[in-house]
Amino acid sequence: CCCCCCCYCCCRYKAWYPIAALETLKTDAPNAVQLLGMRLVLWTDKAGSWRCFEDLCPHRLAPLSEGRIHESGQLQCAYHGWLFNENGGCSSIPQIGDPKAHSTACSSSRACVAAFPTQVLQGMLWVYADSSPQGWAEATADDGTPVRPAAASLELLDQGWELKSPWFQRDVPLSFDVLLENMTDPAHVPQSHHGVVGDRESDQRMTISITTPVTKEGFGSMVSPAAGTGSYAVTYTAPSLVKYEFPGPTMLLYSSPSAKGWSRVVMSFVGPRGSKQTRPATPQLPAALNWFIDNVVERFPALQHALNRNAIIDGDTYFMHAAERTLYERGNAASWSKQYYLPAAADAAVVSWRKWVDKFGASLPVLPRGVRDLPPLMTREQVFDRYHQHTKHCPHCRAALRNAEVAIGLLAIAGAVAAG
Q: Is the Cβ–Cβ distance between 134 and 6 less than 8 Å?
C-alpha cells in the first residue's frame, strides 16, 4: 500500500516521541492522541503490535479513533465500516459489491491511511513523527528493528537500572516551549511546590552553570544549591527528555508536544536495581511527612499520583498557563529575552532552553506565532481538571475512583438503613 505521508519543514521534528505510557492505553479499542498538532490513533493489530495511523478515514474524514478493532484484527471505521490493515491499506469497502471495482477502490492510494513507525521501549509507546517512506527508512535500523530514540534512558537500557514507580502521565494546557522552560527550571521548586517537595522558608539561593553548550542534541547544566543539599545535573536531550540526576534516584521528565497550548508529560524515577530508595531525599520537609511519603504514599500509585505527582503539576501549571498568554500577547517565542528579566545565575538553564528554541525550534509546528494561536485562557478549575487530564487514562487512579464510589454508595445505603 502506498500510504500518504506527513512531513515537516525542519528535520529536527522527525524524531521519536514517547506518546504514552503503555498501561494508559486500551488494547481492545482505538486510542486517540495528538502529536505535533496531528490527530493520531493508536491500536493493536492481531499480532499484538502497536500501530499508529492518522486519525481520519479517507472516505469522509471520520475519526478512526471512534471506530473499533475488527474480529479480523484490523481497524474499522465506525461510520461506513471501511477496514484498514496494519500498514494503513484499505482491505474492505462494504458498499462496493463488484469484486473488480472493490479491488480497484481498495488498492487506490486515496484509500490508504498514513501509518507512522512505532516501538515499545521503557514501558512507553514511541512514535516517529514522519509517515513518509523516507521517515520509515530513518526510523528503521539495518536489521529491520526500530532505531533507538535519542531521548531513550541510558540508565534503563544500558545500566540495568529500573523504574522506581509506574510512569505518571498527564496532559497539561501548556505549549511545548513553555512546558520545557518550566521543566528546566529547578529554582521555582521551593515556592511553587511548597509542602509537596519544596519549602518556601528554605535557603533558595542557587547557582546553575552550563556544563554542555546548546546544540541541536540539547544541553547540560549543574545545579548547586547554597543550602548544601548536594549538587545535581539537569540535562535536556532533544526532543523530549529533561533529566534530573539527583543524589539517589534520577528523575526522567518526558514531554510530547500535542498541539498549540497542550503537551503531555510522562515521568518517573529510576535507580539501581534492588535499591529501596524510590525518590530523592527531601530533608527540607518535616520528618513526619517524609515518613508518611516513604511508607504510605510511595507504596500505592494512586496515592502517589494524587498527593505527589498531580500536586506537583497543580503547583505551577496555572502560573505558566497565564504567563504563556502574556508572552504571546506581547510578542512571540523569540521575544523572550526582551520580555523576561533574568538577572540570577539560577536562570541559566531557562536561558539555554530558550536559546535552543531560537536556534532549533523556531519552526516547531506547535509553537504559537501569537496569542490567537492559543486556546482561550482557562479557569483554575479547568487547568486543574485531573480527571480528564490524568485519571481517566490511569489504571491505578481509575481503580481507586471506582473503589471510592462503591464505598460511598455502601455508606449511603448503610446510613439509610440505620436511619430506618
A: no
> Rounded to two decimals, what is the model's pTM?
0.93
Cα torsion angle, 392, 395, 400, 402, sign: positive
Output the CA angle 204-206-208, nearest 5 degrees. 145
Neighbours of 202 (CB within 10 A): 18
Instruction: For residue 223, give the H/E element and its range.
Output: strand 218-225
Cα–Cα distance for residue pair 263/53, rounded to 1 Å: 19
Q: How many CB atoms lie within 10 A of CB 159?
A: 12
Q: Which residues contact 64 (CB under 8 A, 6 or more apart)?
A: 30, 41, 53, 55, 56, 57, 75, 77, 84, 113
Q: Which residues partner with 126 through β-bridges?
A: 18, 119
Nearest to 18 by CA among 268, 313, 312: 268
Cβ neighbours of residue 128 closer than 8 Å, sequence gap 6 or more: 14, 15, 16, 17, 116, 117, 118, 135, 136, 138, 139, 146
Return averaged pLDDT per consecutive 10 residues of the chain, 420 residues in all: 39 85 98 97 97 98 98 97 97 97 97 97 97 96 96 94 96 98 96 92 94 98 87 97 95 97 98 93 88 93 95 97 98 96 97 97 93 97 98 96 88 82
CB 90 within 8 A of CB 79: no
Closest by alpha carbon to 290, among 299, 303, 281? 281
**Distance of alpha carbon 213 from alpha carbon 200, whole angstroms:** 31
Under 8 Å between Cβ of 321 and 345: no
What the block records as the C-alpha cell of 264 is 503531555
Of 381, 277, 283, 373, nearest to 327 by C-alpha is 373
CB 90 within 8 A of CB 84: yes
- The cell for 6 is 506527513
